[in-house]
């Protein structure tokens, strides 16, 4: 009964903390990084990006603190933990909730280079957040329909070229590139609509991961295959966190080598495309097994 009565107060505290910390640190990132527009000198821009990246890490610590601000929090992290801030990683993660981003920030702010997300174009208009992400050189992806491309063929491959240019900037600063390979958050409705063969996951979209490896594969020190599981699958994780009811998060981290057979032209080489899709599906089967094991034995 007392826990229920405290929910409005926890909600207010957590939401206010998340909003204020995001606004303040986001503004700091913009102030540090925005002079890159006025000083188009590569060496200067790299220094400013490094400073902005350091400020961005403060947001990671703030979001990590959010998990335990109004409730005791237990992290259950299995797998590889020998990671380093001065290296390059690519994360493949399942996507259940917006809280997934905060979970990855919690992992990254301590012993990983700060992450970069592939964002949808409309997100650039979110006050402070959009400009902050742009300052940090995060790629904003604009999807074009077949009708749009048919009317203007120059749009073909434009989002890929944007990604290529942004990823080139990651070569100068240790970076963790994050890819939610399902392309969208999991819901039972999407699971049924896509006729997913996985019990707890949507089918992975291999193209984005393959493209990132094609551009930066030789620079990545490892692929981090991360599986995130929340205790209560029936309530939104965002609500559980903000209302102070999220007490446990399970994370499995598997470090995979970047082998030569994972680097190729996904869009032009049909044999490589089939091989890469098969590899991704096997990784998703492994994730399904992990989620099944956690739900059967850990959260029951």
TrEMBL record:
Residue ranges of the TM segments: 12-35
Superkingdom field: Bacteria
Coiled coil location: none
GO molecular function terms listed in the Swiss-Prot or TrEMBL record: acyltransferase activity
Keyword check for Transmembrane: yes
InterPro entries, alphabetized: Plipid/glycerol_acylTrfase (IPR002123)
Keywords per UniProt: Acyltransferase, Membrane, Transferase, Transmembrane, Transmembrane helix
Sequence ranges assigned to domain Phospholipid/glycerol acyltransferase in this UniProt record: 89-231
Protein name: Acyltransferase
Organism: Pseudidiomarina marina
